[in-house]
Amino acid sequence: MYRTHIEPRVSETDGVGHINNTTIPIWLEAGRNPIFQLFTPDHSFQNWKMIIIKMNVDYLSQIYYGSGVEIRTWVKRIGNSSLELYEEIYQNERLCAKGHALYVHFNLQKQKSEPIPDPIRKELENHLYHII
Amino acid sequence: MYRTHIEPRVSETDGVGHINNTTIPIWLEAGRNPIFQLFTPDHSFQNWKMIIIKMNVDYLSQIYYGSGVEIRTWVKRIGNSSLELYEEIYQNERLCAKGHALYVHFNLQKQKSEPIPDPIRKELENHLYHII
Amino acid sequence: MYRTHIEPRVSETDGVGHINNTTIPIWLEAGRNPIFQLFTPDHSFQNWKMIIIKMNVDYLSQIYYGSGVEIRTWVKRIGNSSLELYEEIYQNERLCAKGHALYVHFNLQKQKSEPIPDPIRKELENHLYHII
Amino acid sequence: MYRTHIEPRVSETDGVGHINNTTIPIWLEAGRNPIFQLFTPDHSFQNWKMIIIKMNVDYLSQIYYGSGVEIRTWVKRIGNSSLELYEEIYQNERLCAKGHALYVHFNLQKQKSEPIPDPIRKELENHLYHII
User: Fold this and answer.
1) What's the whole-model pTM score?
2) Is C108 exposed, middle or buried (0-12, 13-18, 19+ CB in 10 A)?
3) Which of A20, C22, D36, D108 is positioned for an S-S bond with A11, CB 3.0–4.6 A?
């Protein structure tokens, strides 16, 4: 599991008084930084490899300004060229949101998907989600 | 169907060169303004009624800076206190993203869900999604 | 003067109940779209020309969700390679925010500033700010 | 000086390939969290006290995705009810952006400014900016 700490910002709340729902996908993407780095170690957007295909979010509990949150990111399934992630957001040890994201390993120059290389696959397998 | 025109902003793109995937939920929420207004005609956050329960997005085609997009918002299903929306985003007449959002009609003061009032229900029925 | 209409989004408010102050620079940049188009008519980021050097904002009055705003963008000064803009944001005919932004006409490939071409200069002169 | 570490997000870049200029005010506001906490220790927006009056940013050097940044926040001047901050953003020990923000200590219920209380004033004085 990858863990990412995020400190909520005033600009991420909304008039209702909690973190706005559109902030959640932004935080979940932030939690994928270590995975993006596996595919593009130099962080160059010319060599960007991860294209999102779909995602979903379940909003379980309000998230408040004033207390840090933790993003937990697991690998759910590694396909030939696709990668499914499962993610959870905790605040004060309460599960507040969860979701899935499906990515494809894509070559922007050739405009086609490519198999996920074996060394990356091995590293991703260290972060597989297992139901306990 | 509710239609909302949005002009993409430079700040909504990312280094890969297209509109960032996290911008899509922001635009989809913007497309729900006419529905929020039905439930809270004075736009006051103290009387806010619509709480999001879950949502999903399918990313079908890249969206570019420099050309307007249209959000199309339909009512998919009206439950007792819940409301499911179906939404599509078009750029240059191409379907680029689609998704669902599930809301509950919620009383923040009483902290409980409430039935969707009949006059609002009737108005929402004018925007039901029908497969042609 | 360039005029841009913007419909405030729930995600642009904050817990205090108004449009968050960090939304203002985002809207002001959105108001510069017609100027960006003058310098990069094909909207390609490879040919991007306008690099921001500094900006300021005066917050004069709260902006509310539920009512459209208008961004008014003037050219304040055209230097050899620099361009100073003056911008105002109105809601319900009330001036709510104003600010300046200084850009330089920059060649990203050569990594140096370049004179603003005469045809663009002429077009910009149509939008000069004059104290009445 | 208050120090805040921020890990840049893909969604905070733009098509030109760097962190978008509108992200900077968002990060600077994030750097003010410890100051907001002084004025509103329970983080409640009903008791929010800090209203921004004006701000400016100088963009000195591009900021890149892939490397952490540090926000440094100083108190520049403490007035009767006003508070001026000076802020810098560093990436890889390079000063990339700097700016000022002017706040007023405001009572939202009474809709009027109020003197900054002495205990807060004393704490703020520990973070005064001194030219070395």
Assistant:
1) 0.97
2) middle
3) C22
Rounded to whole angstroms, the Cα distance separating C83 from C38 reads 13
* Neighbouring chains to A with at least 3 Cβ pairs closer than 8 Å: B, C, D
- Inter-chain contact A108–B16, Cβ cutoff 8 Å? yes
| Beta strands, E only, A63-130 | 69-78, 82-91, 94-107, 112-113
Residue keyed to tokens 């870049």: D13
| Geometric angle at alpha carbon D33, from D50 and B109, rounded to 5° | 70
CATH code that applies to domain C2-125: 3.10.129.10
Q: Do the beta carbons of residue A29 and residue A69 sit within 8 Å?
A: no
Between chains, do D7 and A30 touch, taking CB under 8 Å as contact? yes
pLDDT tens per residue, range B63-100 = 999 999 999 999 999 999 999 999 999 999 999 999 99
| Token reading at B16 | 């890969």
- Give the separation between CA B100 and CA B79, rounded to whole angstroms: 15
The continuous run of DSSP H or E covering C33 comes out as helix C33-39
| Chain D residues with CB within 8 Å of chain A CB | 4, 7, 9-11, 13, 17, 26, 29-30, 33, 36-37, 42-43, 45, 64-67
Which residues make Cβ contacts (< 8 Å) with residue A48, sequence separation at least 6? A39, A40, A108, B15, B16
D36 three-class SS? helix
C-alpha A4/C-alpha A127 separation (Å) is 14
CA distance B128 to B130: 6
Contact flag D15-C52 (C-beta cutoff 8 Å): no
How many Å apart are CA A50 and CA A107, to the nearest integer? 9
Query: Which of A45, A69, B20, A72 lies closest to D66, judged by CA?
Result: A45
pLDDT in tens, C49-91: 999 999 999 999 999 999 999 999 999 999 999 999 999 999 9
Residue C30 to residue B65: CA distance in whole angstroms:
11
C22 to D22: CB separation less than 8 angstroms, yes or no: yes
ipTM: 0.96
DSSP output for B17-83: SSB-TTHHHHHHHHTTHHHHHHH-TT--GGG--EEEEEEEEEE-S---TTS-EEEEEEEEEE-SSEE
Strands C50-59 and C2-6, sheet pairing: unpaired
CA A68 to chain centre: 17
- Non-local CB neighbours of D44 within 8 Å, separated by 6+ positions: none
